[in-house]
Amino acid sequence: MLGNLGLQRPQRGFWRCIKRFNSTSPPRPLQVTNSGTTPAPFQFANVRHPQNTDGFSVLKPNEITRSYTLHCLFTKNNTHFTYAATVEDTNYLAMHPDLSYNAKFQYYAKLPSKVKIAISTGCLGFRKAARGEYEAAFQTASKMFKTIQEKNLLNHPIDIVMKDFGKGRAAFIAALNGKEGTFVRPKIRTISDATPLKFGGVRSPRIRRL
Q1: The pLDDT of residue 111 is above 60
Q2: Name one Pfam family in it (predicted).
Q3: Separation of alpha carbons 2 and 23, rounded Å
Q4: Fold type of domain 63-193
């Protein structure tokens, strides 16, 4: 009859499995034979003991400060100062022995920086149009110089990078040349300008009015 319906007759093992699972008798206990030999411990792949450091680098980054950079942004409506430390990892080459010559050159040509202080005119309580005035930038520059001295961040040369030509630019130069910058001036190594020059290009955004 199963052949007429296009079905195949189940094998004998199939009925044995059905009888085994449908049986009401208690299961037979599992018999364990002792061959007298101790099995080898199971080994996991790509897993190592915490104390086993064969083939792995145990060096940690050892960053030291080489210099400081004071980034100054003088926009029409605000003034921003960012004081960053240029750091070098003395273990960088030992931790990356497979780097190419170009990769090593790029690392030392532009060492990474870590921000130490960031301040703007708004941090001193200036709001709206007052943030773009001369007095706001002068007080912000004085606050920056004072914070640098309080945190003892004058132990390395300082590079100053200025950008844009807002009213705060003249105020910053005046504060740097005045008594406010007495402790900062001897540490200055270079002063550069990073204002981008536009040649043609797309239309500029509309003037922001406060």
Answers
A1: yes
A2: Ribosomal_S11
A3: 26
A4: Nucleotidyltransferase; domain 5 (3.30.420)
